[in-house]
Amino acid sequence: MGTYTGTYLSDSDGYAQVSVYGERLSLNWNGEEHLLTCHAPGHYIVTLGTGSFFGLGFVRNAGDPVRYLVLGEALFERATVASSISTDRWERYVGAYRLKQPPITVRVEAGVLWMHSAFYGEEARCVPLSHYEFACKWGRFSFQVSPTGDVQGILWGGERFIPRH
Question: Number of C-alpha atoms within 13 angstroms, CB side, residue 97?
Answer without folding.
Answer: 24
